[in-house]
Amino acid sequence: MTAPPGWLTPLVDAVRDIRASDLMPRIGEPDENVRRSAVLALFGETEVRGPDVLLIQRSAHLRSHAGQPAFPGGGVDPDDGGPVGAALREAAEETGLDPAGVEVLAVLPDLWVPPSANVVTPVLAWWREPSEVSPADAYEVASVARVPVADLVNPASRLQIRHPSGWIGPAFRVADMLVWGFTAGVLDRLLDLGGWTRPWDQSVVEDLPEDVLALALRQRRDAEGREGR
Question: Which of 4, 67, 81, 171 could covalently link to 60 via disulfide, CB atoms 3.0 to 4.6 Å apart?
């Protein structure tokens, strides 16, 4: 295993004994038949833009997480052997990255995500040998971006988003995307744990944009319809 760069070491050290509650609040309990997913929190680095993290924007027509920015990832299949295999496979299918260039650093605690009825396992990784990435599956992925950590921690990029349910959580405006929800919550904590966060105005709270809300509401209706069958 190749040691990660020095700037990533504080984050790797911080997640050694991390609990799920350190990453996001627990809301309810999953049932026994819950779906399991994994996402790849992949940090890389370029000479020009410095440390970055790989994000995708999902296509607007998907039944789950339509139009949302996210870490690459998806459901854990029986042949994956667990969350690491699932995260790497899904990332390769979605972005075209070469898993051989990815060094897995830690498997983070399972996180229960009620809106999608999923238990999601984040897999923290270092992009030891970056490969070209783009939407490898246009049906599922609208765009792929290596987002600089400097952009994520820029106070001008930061805000909080208010959902009509009353939920308020961190968000980022980066790479022509509004990153919110589960992905933004995990990113917010990883940036804190890595020691990268800069002071920002947490009083800046905006309502979820109408187009984003419409996709989220459609997803909820579709999920409720499937459960009712």
Answer: 67
Alpha carbon distance 140, 159 (integer Å)? 27
Query: Shortest CA distance to 143 belongs to which of 152, 133, 151, 153?
Result: 133
192 is in which domain, residue-wise? 6-227
When comparing pLDDT for 210 and 175, which is higher?
Answer: 175
Fill in the DSSP letter of residue 209: P
User: pLDDT by residue (tens digit) across 99-147?
Assistant: 999 999 999 999 998 877 889 999 999 999 999 999 998 788 999 999 9
Please tell me the distance from the alpha carbon of residue 171 to that of residue 160, in angstroms, as a whole number: 5
Number of domains in the chain: 1
Please check the confidence at residue 229 and state whether its pLDDT lies above 60.
Answer: no
- 13/18 Cα distance (integer angstroms): 10
**CB crowding 110-126: b at 16 or more within 10 Å, else e:** bbbbebbbbbbbbbbbb
Strands (DSSP E) contained in the chain are: 35-46, 50-58, 69-70, 73-75, 102-107, 111-113, 118-127, 141-148, 158-162, 168-174, 177-179, 205-207
- Rounded distance, CA 104 to CA 114, Å? 27
pLDDT interval class at 69 (50, 70, 90): very high
Could you write out the DSSP letters of every residue in 101-116? GEEEEEEPPPEEEGGG
Residue 207 lies in a domain: yes
